[in-house]
Amino acid sequence: MSEDRKGLNSSMNTLQEIEIVRGGFQLGGRVSVTQLGRSTEWRETLKEMSALEVVDRNQTAAVLLKPETYKAIWAYLQEMESELEHIQIEMLLFRRGKMDNWASGDDLSARATANFTERRNKIRRFLDGDQ
After folding, report:
1. pLDDT tens-digit readout, 64-110
2. Both 7 and 58 in a single domain?
3. Which domain holds residue 111?
């Protein structure tokens, strides 16, 4: 199987696992904190459902995920973070695209020095009352 095909299958599995969790909890997808400690039946339910809601006094206390589901969610979050970074970089470059005063190296150094000198002189004139 090609690497592209493996990557596509992996992405599809990731999305399927995430859809299971996003879809909410199915009937029977709950386990009380007490049951969690007293029996192991919840393990079979977890295998079937990918995620279990752990409740304490009818309030959600935690969510149990199969390791594969956790890994799928983690991979999805990493993908989203990477996508967000790309979008932020594109926006930054787009905004800077309108700038026409790019400089680097010695030119940048000279411009920065001139800017600092100009600011220092403005402050000095203000302090001396020359404004």
Report:
1. 888 888 888 888 888 889 989 999 988 888 877 777 777 788 888 99
2. yes
3. 103-128
DSSP 8-state class, residue 28: T
What does the CA dihedral 120, 124, 126, 131 come to, rounded to 10 degrees?
-90
Same domain, 109 and 49: no
Question: Residue 52, exposed/middle/buried by CB under 10 A (0-12, 13-18, 19+)?
Answer: buried
Residue 50: CB atoms within 10 A of its CB come to 22
**Burial of residue 1 (number of CB atoms within 10 Å: 0-12, 13-18, 19+):** exposed
One domain, residues 65 and 116: no
pTM of structure: 0.53
C-alpha to C-alpha distance for 92 and 80, rounded to whole angstroms: 18
